[in-house]
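Summary for the funding panel

The consortium committed to producing paired sequence-structure records for every protein in the target list. Below we show the first two records in order, beginning with the earlier of the two.
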Amino acid sequence: ILQKLLGFNMMCYLRKVLVAITSIYTLWQIPNFTTAWRSVILSPFISASCPLSSKQIESLHESFVLLFKCPIQADLDLIGIAKRYAQLSLFSFALGSLFLIPF
């Protein structure tokens, strides 16, 4: 299912599925699990450009909230994500992303 949702670029549904299955640890071993999480978190940055529309801001906010729910957080380039938020003048999201980096 994850591969099909990724293939059809159905990020809204993919986001819901990932949040729902995150508590099932055995599913973390699925090959597309990491790819799906990465795609869902990074997808709003693909179409974002200044000035941001309200829909883009909402999408970037959802992506930021997903960072806290993401089980592969340690595998993500959090510095890169923070830079992307900073480039879009979303400095609070950038700072929040940097706080997620483990010491």
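The next record, for a separate protein in the list, is shown here:
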Amino acid sequence: MAGQIKPKLQYVPCISADDTPAPGRATSGVAGGLAICIAADEKGSLFALGDKCPPINQPLSFGKVVDGCIQDPVLGTKFNLKTGVVAEGDWCTSPIGKLLGGLFEPSGVPVYPVKANKNVVEVQVDVNYKAAFESQYWSGILDAQGKSNGKYY
């Protein structure tokens, strides 16, 4: 196995400025290999969160932004835009959410620093995250990619 890959935080482009969501809306992007939800509150302030809603990982970017939270469109969970934590009493509130939500402990989504300039919206992420994760793959005769050297057939 390779040596440990250390985290490296830096701002990377996520979406173009033309794709910035309107107030009360959200959109999706990718930064450093991570799925990111860019949400705009009612005043137009931007927030960046992980784009996978727990517990079943549907896109958070399909949600509505209201009162400092973004709501999962399927299960009804509301996540605080600043902290990513579940709003008090708002874990899996939709009818289907009530069926599934009781099977899982409430969990939030990650939040990331975000900044916008005239051309692009940037999000600060660990640019080494993907490489560090993949460095833990076992490599051998039947590795995850098909060949013992990690290459595809």
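Regarding this second record: Helices lie at 95-101, 129-134. The two ends are 21 Å apart (CA to CA).
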